[in-house]
Amino acid sequence: MLTTTDTKTLAYINLFGVLGTLENLCAMDPNASALLTNKKPISIGFEVKGGPAATITFKNGRCRMEEGIGKCDVKLPFSSCEKFNGLIDGTTTPLPSKGFTHLKFLLKSFVPLTDLLSKYLRPDAEDMKDPEFRAISTRLTLYTAAVAISQVANHDKSGIFSTGLIPDGDIAMNVNGDIGVTLRVRNHHMVTIKERCGKARAAMTFGNLEIAGQLLRGEVSAMGCICDGSIAMCGMVNMIDNVNRILDRVALYLA
C-alpha cells in the first residue's frame, strides 16, 4: 500500500471534507450556531490555484457549502494547494482579495467556528470523557471521512485506481439507529451525499456510533469488527472492498 500523500488531494479533502463539515457542526452544536446568530447572511469563497474552489454561505445560524466561486462577499485566494493546506494546519494566514469590510466576521465568527470544529475532529482525551461531546465528535468525524473518501477516490492516484474497479451504484455507510451517508459512483467518479441511502447496491453498517468512532480513530481494525459482527456488510462485496482500500488512504491524509 502506498504510504505517501499528495498536496492536491489533501487540499480537496481539507476544503470539502474538513471545512465542509462546518455545515454539520452548525446543525449539531448550539455553540456553533450561536456564533452566527443576529448576523447578516455572508458568503466566503475559497479559490485554490491548481486545486479546488468552493463557497460557504452563512445564514440564520447555519451554513452551506457549494462547489465553485460565485457571488461571494469575501474571497480568499490561495496561490497553491500547499498554501491552502497551511490554512487548515495553522501555518498560513490568508488575506482576502475581496471583502475587507468583513474582516470582523472572519476573526470573530469564522475563526472560532473552525477552532471549535478542530476541537471535535482532533479531540483530547478529557473532552472525550463527555458522552455528548464524544457523540458529536464521532458524527462529525464520520461526515468528514465520508466526504474525504470521494476526494481520494477522484484525485489520489491509488484512489482513482480503486474507483476504476467500482461499478455504478450507491454504497451506504450507516450507523444503526443514527446517521448514514451515501457514496454514489457514476462512470468511476464518486460523490458523497450526507443522507441515508435509499437504494444501495452495497452497504457497510456499524453496529452503533461507538464502533464507528473506534474504527475511524484507529482503535479497532475493520477486519476484526467484521469478524465479531460489529460491522456488517451486504450487497456487492467488490464495491465494499474497494471503498475499504480508499478508506485506508483517507486515514493517511487525515492522520
Can you walk through the features of this model?
This protein has helices spanning 7-18, 22-28, 30-34, 81-89, 103-121, 131-155, 157-163, 209-216, 222-228, 237-254; strands at residues 42-48, 53-59, 62-67, 74-78, 169-175, 180-186, 189-193, 202-206, 231-235. The radius of gyration is 18 Å and the shape is globular. It is of the alpha+beta class and 255 residues long. The protein is 46% helix and 21% strand.
Biggest sheet statistics: 5 strands, mixed
| Total number of helices | 10
Going by helix content, strand content and strand pairing, the class is alpha+beta
Helix content class: 40-55%
Radius of gyration: 18 Å
Secondary-structure element string: HHHEEEEHHHHEEEEHHEH
Shape: globular
Distance between the termini: 16 Å
**Average residue pLDDT:** 93
- How do the strands of the widest beta sheet line up side by side? 7-6-5-8-9
* Number of β-strand runs: 9
Strand content: 15-25%
> What low-confidence regions span 5 or more consecutive residues with pLDDT below 50?
none
Secondary structure elements and pairings:
Blueprint: H1 7-18, H2 22-28, H3 30-34, E1 42-48, E2 53-59, E3 62-67, E4 74-78, H4 81-89, H5 103-121, H6 131-155, H7 157-163, E5 169-175, E6 180-186, E7 189-193, E8 202-206, H8 209-216, H9 222-228, E9 231-235, H10 237-254
Helix pairs in contact: 1-4, 1-6, 5-6, 6-7, 6-8, 6-10, 7-10
Give short descriptive properties of this protein.
255 residues; alpha+beta; five-stranded mixed beta sheet; four-stranded mixed beta sheet; 10 helices; 9 strands
